[in-house]
């Protein structure tokens, strides 16, 4: 059935998700922060700066007016970088109502608070009542979603009903949505894989090969799972679309801004230059900062995150990261799995 949906953020991901909703014949309002972009979307049905060569469904109406975008929406999809979530949450406050379902699609952790995006939203909207919240996450580069290439994602919601409604809202022949009741795990997987993708890009930039890539992906998944299960997420979620699935796509695709940023830093560019030239968000930088401090506070071992933090924030040369990882003390590969089994 046709729904009223607002997508907040007209970057790569917001535009691609608006496109899916438009294909599903929903009424879509896409909130942009720049008037020129809203005009490009409304007149040419394109967003060339973020999704080159893509023609958008003509039932997407772009606007810079938050009221116009969100007031009548029963679904509000939040697709801005995690660093903009607090500010946008405040702007959205007047337009949430009893029937609103908020779907967030951002992947990050706040460095100052170690909060996930859903926790930031709950904090900002503590006094408001709305129908529920969901997180949509998984292996889904915007460029391929916009081309209607087969894509699968996971959705988790604050209730089973919310989860199913969001699944129905987005699902179509090119965009397959699985439900997963582990909200924490789904949200963490999407945020944490960006750290590992940056690290793998970095080793590629240094000239290391596929063995190093496989090692970092595997041990990266181990440390993501270690933190996630410490916080109460299900280990199985990290083997699913929002865990392993998203890790694979981000670590192996040149679409990935995190991988590309790491690659350029490994090739000798400074972090500042890379971020300035990317023109799009590189969530892994902020998340590395957050998770480095968070894991230390929690006493959870995350050596890849630690190595990357030192390269990004303490000016340690990238080649030292690989060296320090290779020179760590002897370990049993299944150490953490054994602890998990013991706890069950
Ligand atoms: N791209 C992808 O393939 C996927 C991205 N994601 C996640 O989605 C989130 C958004 O990423 P993505 O769309 O790719 O990012 P982009 O860099 O492509 O676009 C960011 C968008 O957010 C807007 N924006 C940035 N800062 C602010 C702010 N302070 N206030 C209001 N609007 C702001 C930008 O506006 P302007 O154009 O005016 O600068 C732009 O529309 C991230 O958390 C990302 O990890 C998740 C899955 C896939
Ligand atoms: O999350 C993504 C794909 O699922 C996008 O990754 P990047 O932000 O690295 O481009």
From TrEMBL:
- One matching Pfam family is NAD_Gly3P_dh_N
Glycerol-3-phosphate dehydrogenase NAD-dependent C-terminal domain location is 182-322
Q: Which domain of life is it from?
A: Bacteria
Keywords annotated in UniProt: Cytoplasm, Lipid biosynthesis, Lipid metabolism, NAD, NADP, Nucleotide-binding, Oxidoreductase, Phospholipid biosynthesis, Phospholipid metabolism
Catalytic reactions on record: sn-glycerol 3-phosphate + NADP(+) = dihydroxyacetone phosphate + NADPH + H(+); sn-glycerol 3-phosphate + NAD(+) = dihydroxyacetone phosphate + NADH + H(+)
- One GO cellular component term: cytosol
Detail which positions bind substrate. Answer: 107, 257-258
Which pathway is recorded for this entry? Membrane lipid metabolism; glycerophospholipid metabolism
Main location (coarse class) = cytoplasm
**GO biological process, any:** glycerol-3-phosphate catabolic process
Q: What does this protein do?
A: Catalyzes the reduction of the glycolytic intermediate dihydroxyacetone phosphate (DHAP) to sn-glycerol 3-phosphate (G3P), the key precursor for phospholipid synthesis.
PANTHER family xref list: GLYCEROL-3-PHOSPHATE DEHYDROGENASE (PTHR11728), GLYCEROL-3-PHOSPHATE DEHYDROGENASE [NAD(+)] 2, CHLOROPLASTIC (PTHR11728:SF1)
* Identification of the protein by name: Glycerol-3-phosphate dehydrogenase [NAD(P)+]
The species is Marinococcus halophilus
Name of encoding gene: gpsA
